[in-house]
Amino acid sequence: MKTVLLQLQLLKEEFDMENPLPEMEQLLYLFTYDQPHGNSEESDLVKEVMNMHQQYMINEDGLLKSYDIEREKNIIACKMERNREEGKQIGKMETLLQIVISLLKNALGKLTPELTLKIEESNEEELNNIVLRIFDIHSENDVYQILQ
């Protein structure tokens, strides 16, 4: 079975060598065989990739520079993902804070600046506790007890 698959792969490679390839397959061929496809007319993209390859991959300095660029790109991508997650968490906390303040205003009428500040300084767990016990809150003292 493996022999048949290898023979089919060789036949496909021979076929590819004899026929022009689309642009993306030319790039795949270039990366696989480290040379352009002989029977295909090179597009501007393929020529540009080949020039980049000659600039950066052939000499050692270019190769090191390309590794640095790739490393920097990965670092930036990781930082962007972390910032995206931090942004989601901040947005979640701001929403929870707004919900808690709205619920307490509905339950108590008006909130003192001291209580508002205390609520704004609360963590997610404390804010969730207020939401869960909202029907037990009848005064600001009840809120302070939940936050302790």
Task: Explain what this protein looks like in three dimensions.
The chain has 148 residues and is mostly helical. It has one domain. Helix content is 78%, strand content 0%. It is built from 7 helices and no strands. Helix 2 runs parallel beside helix 3 (44-56). The longest helix has 49 residues, at 60-108. It is elongated. The termini are far apart.
List the helices and strands and how they pair.
Layout: H1 2-18, H2 23-33, H3 44-56, H4 60-108, H5 113-120, H6 124-132, H7 140-147
| CA radius of gyration | 32 Å
Q: Helix count, per DSSP?
A: 7
Strand coverage percent: under 5%
| Main pleated-sheet profile | none
Order of helices and strands: HHHHHHH
The total strand number stands at 0
Distance between the termini: 72 Å
The total tally of domains equals: 1
- Class by alpha and beta content: mainly alpha
Amount of helix: over 70%
Looking at the structure, what is the overall shape?
A: elongated
Give the mean pLDDT: 83
- Point out poorly predicted stretches: none
